[in-house]
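S.,

Sequence below, as promised.
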Amino acid sequence: MASETAPKVPVYSVNDLKTTTDDAVVAYLTTLPDPYKFTQNHLKSNVRFALGYGGVAIAGFTFYADRKLGWEATRSPWIIAAVVSYFVLNSLLTIWIWAVEAGEIFQGSRKTGEAISVSSSAKKHSPFYKLHILYKSSSNEVIQEKEFETSFTTWFSSEGILHPEPLRRWLAGEIEVLQRAAEENEKQTGGLSAHVGKQGGSKKKR
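The prediction came back faster than expected:
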């Protein structure tokens, strides 16, 4: 049950619904009970931040030079190089986000060596949230690759409050390793406080 202080999301903003759901998916994968818990790999996000902050730093430097040193200073080779570097970094950032990350919201691994990659997408004015997962063994063999979707209304109330349990049940019903985690948790708790479980009704695309 959602907390009374849980923030509300604008129900007509697909971007806000997607971002909030993405965060909930990541939080869920990183708080599973051992040995199913995933540790997130931040390499791609670190590269994105480095490119982004690098561009911001260069923009700040050129702005300072223009304000403090005057127009003539901006014609120096150093300033020209900085401006070129700014556009190069921003181009690389765009390529990184769209071609390398490509909608990926989570990449992580378990202590046993299995790794999972999760990408999400949602179309403007569409109520559906789509996930693509790629789960590999420690030897890099594909255990499960799947694309599936369902409506945001599965876990968002009409007031825009996210209820995590329906989201977790949906994920467990589609992703095999999460279903195993749910079954193990149910055994340990006697079904009284199962962390996740099966839930049908989603649209699947394989």
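Residues 59 and 140 are 41 Å apart (CA to CA).

Coffee later?
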